[in-house]
Structure formats: structure tokens, C-alpha cells
Amino acid sequence: MMNHRPILVLPPTDVQVIDCKQSEAERDFYEALFKRSKVQFDQKNREYVLKEFSDSKEKMVLLMSLKAGGVSLNLTAASNVFLMDPRWNPAVEEQAIMRIHRIGQKRVVHVRRFIVKDTVEERMQEVQARKERMIAGALTDGEVRSVRIEELKMLFR
């Protein structure tokens, strides 16, 4: 089994990006796992794709959406996660990351986020950090209300 396999996590609603990456990846023996409203893998096909990724020496990268990667998966064959699109809710990203960082994982898991400076995505990352502080109890109720208004203002600066 190949070590340090990456998982590229694409935006869950951007089917065109996923299709583009899938076509590119197939030429290089990559495997794809998608959960879409039109085409969803049944449990048998899903298990097959995951087994192929885990066992194959040729299947080097797994492409998936956060929706597909966030539930009922054990992806310990990978140790690198590339998050291509931030989510409003940091827990959604964390759940997908935890599919890789599970019992049985023998390697350090590396998470990389691709954020372009001075973009909505950068501001979304700031919003995520604020939400994480709220969850941790770092803000009072008054500060939470203020933060919500500031989140909206920050996105459209």
C-alpha cells in the first residue's frame, strides 16, 4: 500500500469543478468518489471505490466533496487532506478531516487549505475562526450578536 496518499476535497455543490478534476485525474489513474444529488453511489459501489483507493498501487488521489467525505467513511489510507473551498460551518470541515484522522491511522495527518489573499474565502476563514472561539466559550452573548453582524459586513468589504 502506498504511503501518504492525498485526498482533494472539492466544493460540494460545484459539479463542474468536480467533473473537470475527475477528467484530468482519470488520465493519471486517479479514483473519484462523489455524492451528488443526481448521481449517488450506493453502499456497494462506495465500498468498492474506497477499497480500490486503499489497496491499489495505482490509485494515488481520491477526489470527493465534503458531503461525501463527512459521513460513514474510514479513509486512513490517506494522510494528506487538501480543502479547496472553505465552509461557513467549521464543523463540516472537521468532520471530513476526522474521516482520515481515525483509530487505525498510523501517520500524521496534514490538512492544507487553499485560501487566496483578499478574497471572500479569506474572510470566510476569519468567520470560521470567530465561530470556533464562540463554540469554545470565548465570547459573551453580546459579543456573539455583534460578531454575526460583523461577519456579514466583513464578507462584502
TrEMBL record:
- Read off the SMART domains from this record: HELICc (SM00490)
Report domain Helicase C-terminal positions: 1-157
Q: Name one GO cellular component term.
A: nucleus
Q: Which Pfam families match?
A: Helicase_C
Listed GO biological process terms: DNA repair
Per the UniProt entry, the signal peptide is none
Q: Which keywords label this protein?
A: ATP-binding, Hydrolase, Nucleotide-binding
**Molecular-function annotations in GO:** ATP binding; ATP-dependent activity, acting on DNA; hydrolase activity
- PANTHER family named in the record: DNA REPAIR PROTEIN RAD5, TRANSCRIPTION TERMINATION FACTOR 2-RELATED
- What name goes with this protein? Helicase C-terminal domain-containing protein
